[in-house]
Amino acid sequence: MIGVLSLQGAISEHAHVLNQIGVKSKPILNRDDLNGIDGLIIPGGESTAIKKLMAYNHLFPAIKQLIQDGLPTFGTCAGMVLLSQPDSFDMLPATVVRNGFGRQQQSFEADLTFKALAKPFHAVFIRAPYLKNVADNVKVLASIEDKVVAVAKDHVLATAFHPELTGDVRLHEYFIDHFVH
Ligand code: GLN
């Protein structure tokens, strides 16, 4: 059972992809919803809004504790921001640059090569962040020039783009196969 943090942003799309690959999910709206989950997805949206709503719903400390204790977690876009920021979950030693691709490229698409995937992944970036100054213990999975856009560290996976929007289920499968199981 995978929890999808369901406060703001691209929520139902993640549940849809999980359903497509035969994985059960449930929305996380309050602390009780966290019981019994084997993994967590933190979707894209607006990281500041998600952070405020997590505080309001008393979710932030509970989720932070679970992630620190090893809950497999996949953050996309704003989810990557929250996993990186020192004053949020602080799980990825790296500097996150919000809206890092600037005004001209608020949204764009790119084909990214992942070692773990046989064919490139067509990635949709929407006001996306990127990571820089990535510590050695963080595995870089994909970059655009010097901007790091997909990483893994221990039980945490994060992408700067939205893998739930393109109908390509491979990164969700990768999360389930390599992080949850
Ligand atoms: N720019 C947003 C933020 O920093 C993230 C955008 C997204 O999730 N598509 O929260």
UniProtKB/TrEMBL annotation:
Highest taxon listed in the record's lineage:
Bacteria
Q: Which residues form the active site?
A: C77, H162, E164
**Residues that bind L-glutamine:** G45, E46, S47, R98, I126, R127
Molecular function terms in GO for this entry?
glutaminase activity; pyridoxal 5'-phosphate synthase (glutamine hydrolysing) activity
Q: Which family does it belong to?
A: Belongs to the glutaminase PdxT/SNO family.
Subunit-level organization: In the presence of PdxS, forms a dodecamer of heterodimers. Only shows activity in the heterodimer.
What does the record give as the function of this protein? Catalyzes the hydrolysis of glutamine to glutamate and ammonia as part of the biosynthesis of pyridoxal 5'-phosphate. The resulting ammonia molecule is channeled to the active site of PdxS.
Please identify the protein, giving its name as recorded: Pyridoxal 5'-phosphate synthase subunit PdxT
Organism encoding this protein: Lentilactobacillus raoultii
